[in-house]
Amino acid sequence: MCARFEEWKDNIREYCERNNLNYQKACSMAKGANENMLVLQHYDPEKGKMGLLDETPMPAVLWAFRDGNGVRFEETEYTRQYLAN
Q1: What is the tens place of the pLDDT at every residue in 24-50?
Q2: Up-side HSE of residue 49: CA atoms within 13 Å toward CB?
Q3: What is the DSSP string of the chain?
Q4: What is the pTM of this model?
């Protein structure tokens, strides 16, 4: 499990609820993170069989950043496509 996702899971759940996004889908997505950011990505197993090993593209679906006010979110062109209820 991604430590940053675990740390921010309540913020992510609240954001999903406020914006009519599916939190359970967010939980099951691929995740990348560093100290101050998290990205949720969509992995399509039909487009590649080995994930990162075959360089299968994984679109960024939702970004989360730590800032002075807590956690700030940025949607992408894929957010509604892959996280809509």
Answers
A1: 999 999 999 999 999 999 987 777 665
A2: 0
A3: --HHHHHHHHHHHHHHHHTTB-HHHHHHSEEEE-SSEEEEE---TTT-SSGGGGT----EEEEEEEETTEEEEEE-TTHHHHHB-
A4: 0.87
